Amino acid sequence: KNKVHWLRDANMLPKKIPHAKISVFHYQSQWFGRGSVDERIDNVASKLLHGLDRSRANETKTPIIFIAHCLGGIILEKALLMSRSRQKDFPNVYPWIAGCFFLGTPFHGTSSQSKAMVLASMAEVAGWATPSTLLKVLEKDSEILRSLLTEFSFMARDAQIRLLCFWEENDSDLVNYLIKGITWVKSKERIVDQSSATIESFDSLSLMADHFNLNKYGLGPKDGNYTAVSDELRETAAKADGIIKTRQN
Questions:
Q1: What residue segments make up the domains of the chain, in order of their start?
Q2: CATH number of 13-243
Q3: Contact 113, 140 (CB under 8 A)
Q4: Tell me: the pLDDT tens digits for 69-84?
Q5: Phi-psi category of 200—alpha, beta or left, where left has phi over 0 and alpha has psi -120 to 50?
Q6: For 30-84, what is each residue's pLDDT tens digit?
């Protein structure tokens, strides 16, 4: 299947933004440990910050642009809030954040039980929680998601961070995610629709992709979705120094 990795392929993002240092954060299921879903989110967000802060400790400080897909965006929201409130612990992160790109992040949850089940199943594979515990969190405008987004949006506006949300135009094939014994789940559905994947008063763009391919660009540099995302990344990178200076002033 798709063997092109847009973050590593020499003809893709490394060529588009040649001076960028591109890093990928992989979280492991054992990091989540026990406890409630929000406690586990805190744990992984903290791991992200510790790793990023250490990697930048002995380097010339450069602006940071984050890219997150699906539930990774929830982790990123929490991590950025923690980076601001704990600047003494993570001095190399918050002052340098210039942009955040979200690909299909369910900021507002979903009113569809079938969609919530798919997202919950994805989270179970990653080690977040069992589907039953996460379904409550993924309910439309759940308290956890609403509170997190309210605080995050305020911080992003105050810090003048450039946020851009991408949402899927195509339905996803859910055959591999159907739960055994449940026959009413649709075989194709929009997993995270525009209303859930966007944040009021921040920029958003649609991609001609299903949920699972928002971050996969099999046609290489000529892929239309890649062009849309990478052009915005390049523009944000060009403006990043100005964003940082404005905040520091």
A1: 13-243
A2: 3.40.50
A3: no
A4: 988 899 899 999 999 9
A5: beta
A6: 434 445 455 577 888 899 999 999 999 887 789 999 999 988 899 899 999 999 9
